[in-house]
Amino acid sequence: MSQQMLARYDSFDRDAFDGDAENRSRAGLSLMQLWRGDGGHWALFGVNDVDEAREWLHKASALGHGPVNHYFLETA
To answer: What is the pTM (predicted TM-score) of this model?
Structure first.
């Protein structure tokens, strides 16, 4: 089974998002899709390690540029 994380960003700075790509990669996250729509921006990430992804979420939130909501998903 593969794991993904769906994340929603209220405010979105593309340059900051792109600049954080290396940190996300080190946390085992790979961007699969990015959408813009009602409610902000949504990103779908592939997840290699849920614990590392949670640590990245904690750090990104503390720095004020993480997603406001996130959901871990598994293929069914």
So the answer is: 0.91
